[in-house]
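Example 3.2
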Amino acid sequence: MKKQNINLAIALSAIAMPILLTGCGGSDESTDSVSVSTTGSGTTAPTTPAIPAAPVVSKQPESVTQSPYAKVEFSATDAKSYRCQLNTEAVSECVSPVIFYPLAAQQHQLQIWHVAADGRQSQPAVVRWQVNSIFPANSTERPHADLATTTVQPALSNDNSWRGIFRINCDLSHSGYVDPIVYPGKTDAAHLHNFYGNVLLDQHSTIETLFTTGDASCQGNTLNRSAYWVPALLAPSYDADTGQRLLDKNGDPAWKVVPAVVGGDDQAHEVFYYSAGVDDVSSIQSIPLGLKMIAGNPAGKPGQEQDSAIVRWHCQSWESSDGKNPRWSAGIPQCLAPDRVRMDIFFPSCWNGLDLDSADHKSHLAYPVKSTTSAGMVCPGTHPVPIVRVSFHYAFGVKPDVYDPKTKSSQGWRLASDSYDSTATTLGGMSLHGDWFNAWHPEALQKILDVCIKKRLDCHDGNLGNGFRLNGTRPGAQNTPEIINKGLGHGAHGGH
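Structure, written as tokens:
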């Protein structure tokens, strides 16, 4: 039986389907038959066929759970179709297994009917369960398994800096030539990406698979199954003894992946931020579940440099800042060892309020603009809904195994998405961009917004500002794919 997914957001707008009642009129094929019986006086009276028994439920959620989704499996003999009703929502056609998400912290009830081949509708199977908050309401309840208690209280964010911010660590999950946003379902269609977050992410990933399955390499684990990915950063590969450029199996110059400084909670190097993009933090809404977006231009190149307010590079020794020292580079600067190369990617934070994606994966969102009536940043009228701003911040160590042996610098580094060659005078990395797919537990993300951002706190290391913090990072597969065509891969799509 084909699997069907039911999202509560869809169920809210579904057209109610009336429940078929035994004995209702219809075509000859669906009209109930009527049998007769003889009474004691010798007369006959019609008898109504027995209502079919309820479907048998073989899998259901635990009676008390903190999971914001539920999977239910059911079956019935001689079932032509099934109908489901969650809580007070409209009755709709369904098939087994059925998945509901996201589910609020409350009592839930699911009723399931089957329709027999003769058109009769069964008695309902009823499933009831309680979804509890991930944060304990009293001493008898436990916090979610992916939360830890903390006595550290975040400080207020600095003036002329972040308006309110939440920072987390992630470890590299895996790498591959796929992109479930741009090339869903296609293998080896994209350039080489490094993926963070949900460890099961692949070309077939959907919001259902992200939200309901898999561990994650980011702090928060199952509370943060979102997927984050960027093009791999590559360095020319040299012989460690002679300093000569190595060749790959095809006789072309060889490349190696430059690892980012991520993971390892003791390093306290946060790579993903959630912050305020507009000045009126009280107006910011949480990010809708399933939102997909891309920041930056994968086709960027010399002569088409990108806006440093969206993507940028710098050496950490530059001590760059937006307020005091806006020293940024459109391409990968030649930073000297033991410096670090830093990249920043800022995602749009104004939503049209309607679409979770768009044809170019950008048009449903926009960047804040300067207000015409005040000095602050606001959302444009075309995209009036301010949401939490997502940004990526990576650092890459300029170390002997990846630096240029002559200059001991990052000279020659490139992104797997670069459609041009980097040289001593032409900086690589001008195609800098990132992808993000939201699968946060809604309650966790709402707490980040309500406490860290709206209260203008600087929440480090997964600290939620309410006495809890997200648990630590966990390692992913960290596979090392072959570098094909300078990272551009098998596809002819080059830029993405």
